[in-house]
Specification:
Distance between the termini: 31 Å
Oligomer: single chain
Order of helices and strands: HEEHEEHEEEHHEHEEHEEHHEE
Strand content: 15-25%
Strand order of the largest sheet: 4-3-7-6-5
Structural class: alpha+beta
Number of helices: 9
Number of strands: 14
């Protein structure tokens, strides 16, 4: 929605602030989502890494224990036939068997699987440690490229003497687990980015929808204040100019005083409306909701407002409306004054036709002027008047505000046969 002042095209300050507020809310939602998703992703990767290490460690222990159990001695010689025939010698885990001699260990079995080549000395060192200590050793060893590979070395004993006869060294394959871990990381990143984008879009839409009523209310408030400042400034300017003229030309004082009185009445009406509106907005005054005779109120305002040489034609029926009679009186007076001032020819008196009908309670104020432009009819809440492109009065804006405050509606249409018609609809019964 483009909220710009109709007079200068400058963006309203409130709209800019609300737009910045929406952006800040969106950024806050994005930051919360990024932090939350990053934390969850880190925990997921950490848990996955630990599970991967546990799986690899369990596979190493199973392979090492199986290989050690398949070794046996016969006639004093280490037999490897069962090891060759078992699946451990054909799996994804590398198996190396070192047998103890008189001085050192010697490699008697090697199944490197499809793992990167590991230098012999890198395997011999942990095998010697296990042989001398008689306890298993878990750790890592680097291949020819320096990449660490998980390792487990366990001792095996001589069946007759019970002494440590050598060591079984197994190496694990971390490739599949690392590939799965990378896929998980990529999935988390892609999912996190997608979710963050959706959350940001949703956050912005919610922020925009949530602040839309506030934006509309504040923009109307700003526009109303700007219009009210103009409305108050105009009669004050007239009063000053006419007073100065009266002081300079004594013969024009009676006419000047009458014009001052009219301007003072207009100023008093504007101040009364503005004070009432300010009290309602600030909560210092509650909107009165009581039944009242709309036809009687409309006829009374018509009689007080339309004076000779202008002519008033009331066509009413008994109608009960529900609302604040004081505010409805102000709205009706503004509509009738607008019709009198701008619904007639240059040198002709105005003829105002006022109709009051029920179901729902509606007041129609019709003039015999030149009619309305499309912009005026479409936006009665703006500072427009009948027969002008861009008036400077506050009357229709006040009437529209009163209608909206009561849950009603103000419409401006071009009447059949010429002229403009204002239709003020109000709730009847108990506000329905």
């Amino acid at each position: 929605m483009n909220r710009r002042d109709r007079r200068g095209g400058k963006p309203l300050q409130t709209a800019d602030r609300l737009r910045n507020l929406r952006i800040r809310i969106t950024l806050l939602v994005m930051a919360i989502n990024v932090v939350g998703l990053a934390g969850m992703g880190a925990v997921a990767l950490l848990v996955d890494g630990r599970q991967r290490d546990e799986v690899v460690a369990a596979e190493l222990r199973r392979t090492a224990s199986t290989a050690a159990a398949l070794l046996y001695y016969e006639s004093g010689a280490l037999q490897l036939d069962k090891l060759f025939d078992n699946a451990v010698a054909n799996g994804t885990t590398a198996v190396y068997v070192y047998e103890a001699g008189r001085a050192d260990l010697s490699l008697v079995f090697a199944y490197p699987a499809r793992l990167p080549v590991v230098p012999p000395n890198n395997l011999l060192a942990p095998a010697r440690t296990v042989w001398t200590s008689g306890t298993e050793l878990a750790g890592g060893v680097g291949d020819t490229a320096g990449t660490p590979t998980p390792l487990l070395a366990v001792p095996f004993e001589h069946a007759v003497t019970g002494a440590v006869a050598g060591a079984v060294v197994v190496l694990g394959d971390t490739g599949p687990a690392e590939t799965a871990n990378r896929r998980l990381a990529l999935a988390l990143v892609a999912g996190g980015v997608s979710f963050t984008a959706l959350a940001c879009a949703g956050g912005y839409l919610l922020a925009r929808r949530g602040t839309e009523p506030i934006a509309d209310a504040l923009n109307q408030q700003e526009r109303f204040v700007a219009d009210a400042a103009h409305e108050l400034r105009t009669p004050l300017t007239v009063i000053r100019a006419v007073s100065e003229t009266a002081l300079a030309e004594p013969q024009r004082r009676p006419a000047a005083l009458r014009q001052v009185v009219r301007s003072a009445d207009r100023l008093a009406d504007s101040v009364s409306v503005l004070l009432t509106r300010a009290q309602l907005v600030a909560g210092l005054r509650d909107l009165r909701r009581e039944p009242f005779r709309l036809d009687q109120l409309a006829e009374e305002v018509l009689t007080d407002t339309v004076v000779a040489p202008h002519r008033a034609v009331p066509v009413t029926e008994a109608v009960v409306a529900y609302g604040d009679p004081a505010l409805v009186r102000i709205a009706l007076r503004n509509l009738i004054q607008n019709a009198v001032q701008h619904g007639r020819g240059t040198d002709q008196p105005a003829e105002i036709r006022l109709e009051v009908t029920g179901g729902p309670p509606t007041v129609r104020v019709r003039d015999r002027g030149t009619g309305l432009s499309e912009a005026v009819a479409a936006a009665p809440e703006q500072r427009f008047r009948s027969g002008t492109e861009d008036g400077t009065g506050l009357g229709l804006a006040i009437a529209s505000w009163v209608a909206q405050l009561h849950g009603g509606q103000l419409r401006l249409v071009n009447a059949e046969g010429g002229g403009a018609e204002a239709r003020l609809r109000l709730p009847g019964g108990q506000g329905g």
